[in-house]
Specification:
The chain is built from 9 helices and 12 strands. By secondary structure, the protein is α+β, with helices and mostly antiparallel strands. Strand 1 and strand 2 form a beta hairpin. The protein is elongated. GO terms for molecular function: 2 iron, 2 sulfur cluster binding.
């Protein structure tokens, strides 16, 4: 069905409603039309067991309830049209949870860490690996197109409830069996021998020092990067369609606003923030995206590093 189909349906039903109202006023009701309308109403709104009982033809359906039913259908079609229009608009741009909602999905514990559960369909599509400098097993990689990657896209792009998985997260329990500090053989065995079609992992994330998940809008490309990595290098590995038109970063063509705090990052010059709470994804909106979704211009927003754009005379501030 095309995006305009519900609107056309609503207009059609409104025309039918007008015709029925005219017929009610000037014409005598037809017994055949009444019984036929009753049968049609039964076929639309009742269960198969109810449809098995034939309608009585002598029980005529008045024109007014028929018109009311069509009016209700018209209103329903209009509501569907509005909902479909809203869905088509939201499907173009990734939605976002608030900082409070992200925080509600984890439990903060000592040492700058956050703990949470995720349930992933088998096979998980992750690469586990022992930490090189301490006991324990972490998520070393997430296979593109695998079930963990699909889960992340549902959470980050479709606003599904739950927490996304990040490279560097430590596996501390599998289906309720704790394995914190365990070796790769122990953790892998728990996953392989788990029953059912899915596995629940309890993960711990270092939210002050671990890597950061970056989402680019409107391309909806996303990947994980280390803190202080040059944003331009991050973007170019993904191909998020950022334009670069100058050497000093002040032409504004590459400017993106971070969605949570609405501060501007000059992609060609600035880095992934060193101080970022990676429980929250780092979502970057293009200048056009900011204008279309927030109704503001990026040039009117504060630069993330606090530097003011050059004046017309070429001086800073």
């Amino acid at each position: 069905m095309s995006a305009h189909a519900p609107v056309v349906l609503a207009a059609f039903l409104a025309a039918v409603l007008a015709a029925c109202t005219w017929a009610q006023t000037f014409l005598a009701p037809s017994p055949w039309l009444s019984s036929k309308a009753q049968l049609n109403a039964q076929s639309r709104g009742r269960s198969s067991s109810t449809l098995a009982r034939p309608a009585r033809a002598e029980q005529a359906v008045p024109a007014a309830p028929l018109a009311l039913s069509i009016a209700s259908l018209g209103a329903l079609a209009a509501a569907v049209a509005r909902r479909q229009g809203a869905h088509s608009r939201s499907s173009v741009v990734a939605r976002r949870a608030t900082v409070a909602q992200w925080n509600s999905r984890v439990k903060r514990i000592e040492g700058g860490r956050a703990i949470f559960d995720v349930t992933i369909t088998k096979p998980l599509g992750i690469t586990p690996k022992e930490f090189p400098n301490r006991p324990g097993v972490g998520i070393a990689g997430i296979k593109e197109g695998g079930n963990t990657d699909l889960w992340n896209k549902e959470v980050l792009l479709n606003d599904a409830e739950g927490m996304f998985v990040l490279e560097g997260d430590e596996v501390v329990a599998v289906n309720g069996t704790f394995c914190e500090g365990g070796d790769l053989k122990t953790v892998s065995k728990l996953v392989k021998e788990s029953e059912g079609d899915s596995v629940t992992l309890k993960l711990v994330r270092n939210y002050l020092r671990g890597p950061v998940k970056i989402v680019w809008k409107p391309s909806l490309k996303m990947a994980t990067y280390k803190r202080k990595a040059l944003l331009r290098a991050c973007e170019e590995t993904l191909g998020a369609n950022v334009r670069y038109s100058c050497e000093d970063g002040w032409c504004s063509s590459c400017w993106h606003a971070e969605e949570t705090y609405m501060t501007v990052f000059r992609i060609c010059k600035m880095d992934v923030p060193e101080k970022w709470d990676n429980v929250v994804p780092f979502v970057l909106l293009s200048a056009l995206e900011v204008k279309n979704t927030k109704g503001v211009l990026v040039k009117n927003l504060m630069q993330a590093d606090g530097v003011k754009p050059p004046r017309q005379d070429g001086k800073i501030g």
